[in-house]
Amino acid sequence: SLLNHYYCKKFIMGTSRLKSHNCFSTSITKQHKNSKQESTHETKIIKRRDQACRSLLIQVHSSNSYKDLYNYCLQFGDISSMHHHINDQQNYILVEFTNIVSIKKIMSSASFTKEDFTPVKSSILWFRKGQIRLQKSNQKKVSLFVENNMLPNEEKRTNLLNDAKSISGQIIILYEMMKLTDLEIRLRFHTAHHLEQYFSRLFENIKVLPFGSSINGFGRKMCDLDLVLDNITSRLVFHSKFNNNSKRYETKDFLGILADTMQYFIPGILNVRKILHAQVPIIKFCYNYTQTECDLSATNMTAIYMTELLNLYGEMDWRVRPLVIAIRAWAKSQKLTCDSPGHWITNFPLTLLVLFFLQQKKILPSLQLLKLYSTHDDVRYTENGVDCTFLRDINKLPADYKYKINQDSLETLLYDFFEYYSTFDFQTYGICIREGVQIRKPSRSALHITNPLETTLNVSKNVNVCELNRIISKMHDAIYMLETNEFGSNNWGIISLLKANNDNENLKKSNTTKGQTKNIEECSEDSYKNSYEISDKFEVSVEANI
Ligand code: GTP
Ligand code: MG
């Protein structure tokens, strides 16, 4: 038969106890078809999830297999797109079919690699070439998308930035270089879909939703993938050995068992770590097909709405995302942010600093204003009753915000950002996106950034005085470098800001920071020594909210 000659094999693993379930239940809702709603965050997520349901990640020998695979797949239905993806020297093609029926057909025709495993069908397959019979089809030819998803090394980055005509141009180039590509977003939704396929065999209607920088437009290539389990209310309840049968223990038990299941039964999941004692318990793991670090949490809907809010701010003005990405890149190269947890700032509060600054520049509105203009359709509450209602359709904003008076260039905004915070009175005031104005600090934390959706919480409570001073000092350095490295010199514009380990030399040069330098360096070392013995940054930042 056809299958004996050329067939797709599924990566297999699973358990015979798993119940069969139609994992393709996610369909495009009526809302999706409503063109008025086309551009909202929620409809984009629905589209991306639908796209993931219609896609298969197929391992091939090389990109030359594209034509054979294309011909082979045509027998199952029309194809919308094909994307080449290389991971760890293995070649894959992400095939998007036009209709979900094709996926069902291909799934029932594919076979398994070994008989000793209990088969569970996943949307990751591999293609072995056999005799290919050309398919008759009226569909338009689909070409293979080939994208470079690697971050350029420092030398290449510097060369590209050197070609720019201005600092604003450099920021745009950096943004284009670092932002997530369409393929990466597809793969991130595909990863969520892959997990959902497995989990849904245990728990009906469960959803795995991506959130955080992967989808709010502030993510950079290779950033972590934050995932949340939704709809676990209809799940089986585990017998718990705890007397205290609180929701938190239930979630901990649930995630603990899920972590073991993932480790043993889901292909592509490596290095599973359970971090269950945190305020928001999570499972960390590496997804091998894309080499992505993932954090999976349960019923964390505030984070989903926070992502939506950040995405909305990113959509409001074309300057927001390039500026945020540039400042995140600067903070990373100056080691102000770090992958491990501690007393330092993380990307999320840093992003809130940028958004607050843009509110001061009258480029972005306060959350209060977005709440004021919200409609009946915008009402959202989390399972814990947190009010996440705000205007989702930015076209309904008042004219002031549609036709902005502030037309500052990215260069000016970058410079002003450093100037604004390097002279900000952090001792007295806190940052509040909700109000859009600085507030008297309600806590004794060194840095107070109000959680926009839960205003009693400080998202930067973990940041200590030494780290705050280091941030301010690096901002003074940045101003100095932007002023002194003239256009055309080796280090002009943001090139100098992105160079790591240049602090000693520049700190000595900078007069503005002279008084602080020694103090900062001493403190900094100390704070590293005393950093939390916790293995997750999310844990620290969330604990910071307590
Ligand atoms: P990178 O992963 O560093 O690119 O940025 P990110 O924005 O995805 O940040 P992170 O992975 O640390 O967190 C993911 C999401 O969780 C954020 O976008 C926030 O919505 C939420 N989050 C992170 N830290 C906090 C915190 O301290 N408090 C609250 N309430 N939410 C947080
Ligand atoms: Mg993240």
Topology:
Layout: H1 2-5, E1 7-10, H2 30-33, H3 41-53, E2 55-60, H4 66-74, E3 79-87, E4 90-97, H5 100-109, E5 111-112, E6 124-128, E7 144-146, H6 154-162, H7 167-178, H8 182-199, E8 207-211, H9 213-216, E9 225-230, H10 247-265, E10 269-275, E11 282-287, E12 292-298, H11 301-316, H12 320-333, H13 347-360, H14 367-372, H15 399-402, H16 410-422, E13 429-430, E14 439-440, H17 465-484, H18 494-497, H19 503-509, H20 514-529, H21 537-543
Parallel strand pairs: 1-5, 2-6, 3-7, 9-12
Antiparallel strand pairs: 1-6, 2-4, 3-4, 8-9, 10-11, 11-12, 13-14
The protein binds guanosine-5'-triphosphate and magnesium ion.
Supply database-style keywords.
single chain, about 550 residues, alpha/beta, seven-stranded mixed sheet, five-stranded mixed sheet, globular, binds guanosine-5'-triphosphate, binds magnesium ion
Bound molecules: guanosine-5'-triphosphate, magnesium ion
Task: Give the rounded overall mean pLDDT.
Answer: 81
What is the total tally of β strands? 14
- N-to-C terminal Cα separation, in Å? 62 Å
Say what oligomer this is.
single chain
Choose one word for the global shape. Answer: globular
Strand order of the largest sheet: 5-1-6-2-4-3-7
Write down the Rg.
25 Å
Structural class estimated from helices and strands: alpha/beta
Number of helices: 21
Instruction: Give helix % range.
Output: 40-55%
Beta-strand percent range: 5-15%
Uncertain residue segments? 1-37, 240-245, 504-546
Largest sheet: 7 strands, mixed
